Amino acid sequence: MLVADSWKDYDLIDAGNEEKLERWGKYILRRPDPQAIWPITGNQEQWEKVHAFYHRNQNGGGSWEYCSLIPEHWIVKYKNLSFYIHPTGFKHTGLFPEQAVNWDWMTDKIKNRLKTGHKSVKVLNLFAYTGGATIAAAYAGAEVCHVDSAKAMVNRAKENLILTGLGNRTVRFITDDVIKFTQREKRRGHYYDAVIMDPPSYGRGPEGEMWKIEDNLYDLIILCREVLSNNPLFFLINIYATGLSPFVLKNILTVTIKNKFGGYASADEIGLPISSSGLVLPCGAFGRWEDRFD
After folding, report:
1. Are residues 201 and 141 in the same domain?
2. How far apart are the first and last CA of the chain?
3. What is the pTM of this model?
4. What total number of domains does the chain contain?
5. In the predicted model, is pLDDT for residue 210 greater than 80?
6. DSSP annotation string for 168-211
Protein backbone atom coordinates (compact mmCIF):
# COMPACT_ATOMS: atom_id res chain seq x y z
CA MET A 1 0.00 0.00 0.00
CA LEU A 2 1.13 3.54 -0.77
CA VAL A 3 0.35 5.98 2.05
CA ALA A 4 -0.16 9.70 1.53
CA ASP A 5 1.85 10.86 4.53
CA SER A 6 3.37 14.12 3.26
CA TRP A 7 0.44 16.44 3.98
CA LYS A 8 0.66 19.46 6.29
CA ASP A 9 -2.73 21.07 5.60
CA TYR A 10 -4.62 17.79 5.93
CA ASP A 11 -4.75 15.29 8.80
CA LEU A 12 -6.87 12.18 9.24
CA ILE A 13 -7.24 12.54 12.98
CA ASP A 14 -9.23 9.38 13.64
CA ALA A 15 -11.47 6.83 11.94
CA GLY A 16 -13.92 4.18 13.16
CA ASN A 17 -17.57 3.20 13.33
CA GLU A 18 -17.78 3.92 9.57
CA GLU A 19 -16.78 7.55 10.02
CA LYS A 20 -13.65 9.65 9.77
CA LEU A 21 -12.51 12.78 11.57
CA GLU A 22 -10.37 15.09 9.44
CA ARG A 23 -8.59 18.41 9.62
CA TRP A 24 -8.71 20.40 6.39
CA GLY A 25 -6.54 23.44 7.04
CA LYS A 26 -7.90 24.80 10.31
CA TYR A 27 -11.38 23.23 10.01
CA ILE A 28 -12.41 19.87 11.46
CA LEU A 29 -14.93 17.78 9.51
CA ARG A 30 -16.68 14.55 10.46
CA ARG A 31 -18.09 12.44 7.65
CA PRO A 32 -18.91 8.85 6.70
CA ASP A 33 -16.40 6.29 5.45
CA PRO A 34 -17.61 2.71 4.87
CA GLN A 35 -14.07 1.28 5.13
CA ALA A 36 -13.67 2.28 8.79
CA ILE A 37 -15.61 -0.65 10.24
CA TRP A 38 -13.52 -0.98 13.43
CA PRO A 39 -14.38 0.87 16.69
CA ILE A 40 -13.08 4.38 17.30
CA THR A 41 -9.64 4.13 18.88
CA GLY A 42 -8.94 7.78 19.68
CA ASN A 43 -10.38 10.23 22.16
CA GLN A 44 -14.17 10.22 21.85
CA GLU A 45 -14.42 13.84 22.98
CA GLN A 46 -12.55 15.12 19.92
CA TRP A 47 -15.32 13.71 17.71
CA GLU A 48 -17.74 16.19 19.25
CA LYS A 49 -15.51 19.24 18.64
CA VAL A 50 -16.03 19.66 14.91
CA HIS A 51 -16.87 22.53 12.61
CA ALA A 52 -19.17 20.41 10.41
CA PHE A 53 -20.71 16.94 10.63
CA TYR A 54 -22.18 15.09 7.64
CA HIS A 55 -25.23 13.00 8.57
CA ARG A 56 -26.40 10.19 6.31
CA ASN A 57 -30.09 9.58 5.84
CA GLN A 58 -31.95 6.33 5.19
CA ASN A 59 -32.15 7.01 1.45
CA GLY A 60 -28.38 6.98 0.97
CA GLY A 61 -28.00 10.76 0.83
CA GLY A 62 -27.48 13.17 3.68
CA SER A 63 -26.65 16.73 4.70
CA TRP A 64 -24.10 18.77 6.60
CA GLU A 65 -24.72 20.04 10.09
CA TYR A 66 -22.60 23.14 10.69
CA CYS A 67 -21.58 23.31 14.32
CA SER A 68 -19.74 26.63 13.98
CA LEU A 69 -19.33 29.28 11.33
CA ILE A 70 -17.07 28.21 8.47
CA PRO A 71 -16.61 29.74 5.00
CA GLU A 72 -18.30 28.34 1.92
CA HIS A 73 -14.85 27.33 0.71
CA TRP A 74 -11.27 27.65 1.89
CA ILE A 75 -7.76 26.84 0.69
CA VAL A 76 -5.45 23.94 1.48
CA LYS A 77 -1.99 23.40 0.04
CA TYR A 78 -0.06 20.27 -0.84
CA LYS A 79 3.58 21.19 -1.38
CA ASN A 80 3.37 23.74 -4.24
CA LEU A 81 -0.23 22.93 -5.21
CA SER A 82 -3.28 24.78 -3.90
CA PHE A 83 -6.92 23.70 -3.81
CA TYR A 84 -10.27 25.05 -2.73
CA ILE A 85 -12.19 22.86 -0.28
CA HIS A 86 -15.99 22.93 -0.77
CA PRO A 87 -18.16 20.63 1.38
CA THR A 88 -20.76 19.27 -1.04
CA GLY A 89 -24.22 17.75 -0.72
CA PHE A 90 -22.89 14.20 -0.94
CA LYS A 91 -20.26 14.25 1.84
CA HIS A 92 -17.33 15.17 -0.44
CA THR A 93 -14.99 18.14 -0.05
CA GLY A 94 -13.77 18.57 -3.64
CA LEU A 95 -10.45 16.81 -3.08
CA PHE A 96 -9.21 13.28 -2.44
CA PRO A 97 -6.08 13.72 -0.27
CA GLU A 98 -4.87 10.12 -0.75
CA GLN A 99 -4.25 10.96 -4.42
CA ALA A 100 -1.18 12.94 -3.37
CA VAL A 101 0.87 9.75 -3.83
CA ASN A 102 -0.11 9.74 -7.50
CA TRP A 103 0.48 13.48 -7.89
CA ASP A 104 4.05 13.02 -6.65
CA TRP A 105 4.61 10.05 -8.97
CA MET A 106 3.32 11.73 -12.11
CA THR A 107 5.18 14.95 -11.32
CA ASP A 108 8.46 13.03 -11.21
CA LYS A 109 7.63 11.12 -14.41
CA ILE A 110 6.79 14.29 -16.35
CA LYS A 111 9.78 16.27 -15.10
CA ASN A 112 12.17 13.43 -15.89
CA ARG A 113 10.78 13.08 -19.42
CA LEU A 114 11.17 16.81 -20.06
CA LYS A 115 14.75 16.74 -18.76
CA THR A 116 15.68 14.23 -21.47
CA GLY A 117 15.03 16.77 -24.22
CA HIS A 118 11.39 16.10 -25.04
CA LYS A 119 9.72 19.37 -25.97
CA SER A 120 6.37 18.51 -24.41
CA VAL A 121 4.37 15.91 -22.50
CA LYS A 122 0.68 15.79 -23.38
CA VAL A 123 -1.64 14.36 -20.70
CA LEU A 124 -5.28 13.32 -21.04
CA ASN A 125 -7.11 13.38 -17.69
CA LEU A 126 -10.51 11.65 -17.84
CA PHE A 127 -13.23 11.80 -15.16
CA ALA A 128 -10.99 14.62 -13.97
CA TYR A 129 -13.23 16.05 -11.20
CA THR A 130 -11.79 19.21 -9.60
CA GLY A 131 -8.40 18.71 -11.16
CA GLY A 132 -5.98 17.39 -8.55
CA ALA A 133 -4.08 15.39 -11.17
CA THR A 134 -4.51 18.16 -13.75
CA ILE A 135 -2.88 20.71 -11.44
CA ALA A 136 -0.03 18.34 -10.57
CA ALA A 137 0.66 17.52 -14.23
CA ALA A 138 0.51 21.18 -15.27
CA TYR A 139 2.83 22.13 -12.42
CA ALA A 140 5.33 19.53 -13.67
CA GLY A 141 5.27 21.15 -17.11
CA ALA A 142 2.79 18.99 -19.03
CA GLU A 143 0.13 20.14 -21.48
CA VAL A 144 -3.14 18.79 -20.08
CA CYS A 145 -6.58 18.03 -21.50
CA HIS A 146 -9.02 17.88 -18.56
CA VAL A 147 -12.34 16.12 -19.29
CA ASP A 148 -15.34 15.73 -16.98
CA SER A 149 -19.07 15.62 -17.67
CA ALA A 150 -19.95 17.89 -14.72
CA LYS A 151 -19.60 21.56 -15.58
CA ALA A 152 -19.41 22.61 -11.92
CA MET A 153 -16.42 20.31 -11.34
CA VAL A 154 -14.66 21.61 -14.45
CA ASN A 155 -15.15 25.17 -13.22
CA ARG A 156 -13.65 24.26 -9.86
CA ALA A 157 -10.67 22.72 -11.61
CA LYS A 158 -10.14 26.00 -13.46
CA GLU A 159 -10.24 27.83 -10.13
CA ASN A 160 -7.67 25.46 -8.63
CA LEU A 161 -5.33 25.95 -11.59
CA ILE A 162 -5.46 29.73 -11.15
CA LEU A 163 -5.16 29.41 -7.37
CA THR A 164 -1.90 27.47 -7.80
CA GLY A 165 -0.57 30.23 -10.04
CA LEU A 166 -0.69 28.15 -13.22
CA GLY A 167 -3.28 30.10 -15.18
CA ASN A 168 -0.79 30.60 -18.03
CA ARG A 169 -0.14 26.86 -18.51
CA THR A 170 -1.53 24.94 -21.48
CA VAL A 171 -4.65 23.26 -20.09
CA ARG A 172 -7.81 22.51 -22.09
CA PHE A 173 -10.94 22.18 -19.96
CA ILE A 174 -13.63 20.07 -21.62
CA THR A 175 -17.14 19.43 -20.29
CA ASP A 176 -18.19 16.28 -22.12
CA ASP A 177 -18.85 12.57 -21.90
CA VAL A 178 -15.47 10.89 -21.55
CA ILE A 179 -16.09 8.09 -24.06
CA LYS A 180 -17.57 10.31 -26.73
CA PHE A 181 -14.78 12.85 -26.36
CA THR A 182 -12.05 10.19 -26.59
CA GLN A 183 -13.70 8.69 -29.67
CA ARG A 184 -13.59 12.11 -31.32
CA GLU A 185 -9.94 12.57 -30.37
CA LYS A 186 -9.17 9.26 -32.04
CA ARG A 187 -10.93 10.35 -35.24
CA ARG A 188 -9.11 13.68 -35.18
CA GLY A 189 -5.73 11.97 -34.79
CA HIS A 190 -4.96 13.70 -31.48
CA TYR A 191 -2.44 11.76 -29.38
CA TYR A 192 -1.28 11.91 -25.76
CA ASP A 193 1.84 10.78 -23.92
CA ALA A 194 -0.06 9.92 -20.75
CA VAL A 195 -3.60 9.04 -19.70
CA ILE A 196 -5.11 9.42 -16.23
CA MET A 197 -8.57 8.15 -15.38
CA ASP A 198 -10.71 7.94 -12.26
CA PRO A 199 -13.85 6.19 -13.53
CA PRO A 200 -16.97 5.80 -11.37
CA SER A 201 -18.23 2.38 -10.37
CA TYR A 202 -21.65 3.12 -11.88
CA GLY A 203 -23.08 5.87 -14.03
CA ARG A 204 -25.02 6.86 -17.10
CA GLY A 205 -23.94 8.55 -20.31
CA PRO A 206 -25.62 11.59 -21.89
CA GLU A 207 -28.17 9.41 -23.66
CA GLY A 208 -28.85 7.12 -20.72
CA GLU A 209 -26.11 4.59 -21.51
CA MET A 210 -25.33 2.45 -18.48
CA TRP A 211 -21.74 2.48 -17.24
CA LYS A 212 -20.58 -0.33 -14.96
CA ILE A 213 -16.87 -0.46 -14.29
CA GLU A 214 -16.61 -4.27 -14.36
CA ASP A 215 -18.25 -4.38 -17.79
CA ASN A 216 -16.84 -1.25 -19.44
CA LEU A 217 -13.36 -0.54 -18.07
CA TYR A 218 -11.49 -2.84 -20.44
CA ASP A 219 -13.12 -1.33 -23.53
CA LEU A 220 -12.39 2.18 -22.29
CA ILE A 221 -8.71 1.37 -21.84
CA ILE A 222 -8.58 -0.13 -25.34
CA LEU A 223 -10.08 3.12 -26.64
CA CYS A 224 -7.56 5.21 -24.71
CA ARG A 225 -4.71 3.07 -26.05
CA GLU A 226 -5.69 4.30 -29.52
CA VAL A 227 -4.94 7.91 -28.54
CA LEU A 228 -1.54 7.18 -26.97
CA SER A 229 1.52 8.49 -28.77
CA ASN A 230 4.18 6.16 -30.15
CA ASN A 231 6.35 6.78 -27.09
CA PRO A 232 3.94 7.02 -24.15
CA LEU A 233 5.06 7.93 -20.66
CA PHE A 234 2.44 6.50 -18.29
CA PHE A 235 -1.13 5.28 -17.86
CA LEU A 236 -2.84 5.65 -14.47
CA ILE A 237 -6.20 4.23 -13.33
CA ASN A 238 -7.81 4.93 -9.95
CA ILE A 239 -10.84 3.07 -8.64
CA TYR A 240 -13.04 3.53 -5.56
CA ALA A 241 -15.94 1.66 -4.00
CA THR A 242 -15.62 -1.47 -6.07
CA GLY A 243 -14.78 -5.10 -5.45
CA LEU A 244 -12.10 -5.14 -8.13
CA SER A 245 -8.68 -6.21 -6.89
CA PRO A 246 -5.76 -3.90 -7.70
CA PHE A 247 -4.22 -6.80 -9.58
CA VAL A 248 -7.18 -6.85 -11.94
CA LEU A 249 -5.98 -3.39 -12.98
CA LYS A 250 -2.42 -4.65 -13.34
CA ASN A 251 -3.60 -7.54 -15.51
CA ILE A 252 -5.66 -5.27 -17.75
CA LEU A 253 -2.79 -2.80 -18.16
CA THR A 254 -0.43 -5.67 -18.94
CA VAL A 255 -2.72 -7.05 -21.64
CA THR A 256 -3.64 -3.70 -23.18
CA ILE A 257 -0.66 -1.36 -22.69
CA LYS A 258 2.43 -3.32 -21.63
CA ASN A 259 2.04 -5.94 -24.35
CA LYS A 260 2.04 -3.17 -26.97
CA PHE A 261 4.57 -0.69 -25.60
CA GLY A 262 6.73 -2.71 -23.19
CA GLY A 263 7.51 -0.96 -19.94
CA TYR A 264 6.12 -1.95 -16.55
CA ALA A 265 2.67 -2.50 -15.04
CA SER A 266 1.97 -2.35 -11.31
CA ALA A 267 -0.96 -2.01 -8.93
CA ASP A 268 -1.63 -1.49 -5.26
CA GLU A 269 -3.91 0.16 -2.73
CA ILE A 270 -3.60 3.72 -1.50
CA GLY A 271 -4.36 4.94 1.99
CA LEU A 272 -4.20 7.71 4.58
CA PRO A 273 -2.40 7.48 7.93
CA ILE A 274 -4.61 7.87 10.99
CA SER A 275 -2.67 10.13 13.33
CA SER A 276 -4.38 9.08 16.59
CA SER A 277 -3.80 5.34 16.19
CA GLY A 278 -1.06 4.72 13.64
CA LEU A 279 -3.52 2.70 11.54
CA VAL A 280 -4.01 3.29 7.82
CA LEU A 281 -7.40 3.91 6.22
CA PRO A 282 -7.70 2.18 2.81
CA CYS A 283 -8.86 4.63 0.15
CA GLY A 284 -9.11 2.70 -3.08
CA ALA A 285 -6.72 1.17 -5.57
CA PHE A 286 -4.61 2.21 -8.52
CA GLY A 287 -3.08 0.58 -11.56
CA ARG A 288 -0.06 2.08 -13.28
CA TRP A 289 1.76 1.45 -16.50
CA GLU A 290 5.00 3.35 -17.02
CA ASP A 291 7.63 3.42 -19.69
CA ARG A 292 10.40 2.66 -17.18
CA PHE A 293 11.16 2.78 -13.47
CA ASP A 294 12.93 6.04 -12.56
Report:
1. yes
2. 19
3. 0.94
4. 2
5. no
6. TS-EEEEES-HHHHHHHHHHHT--BSEEEE---SEEE-TT--EE
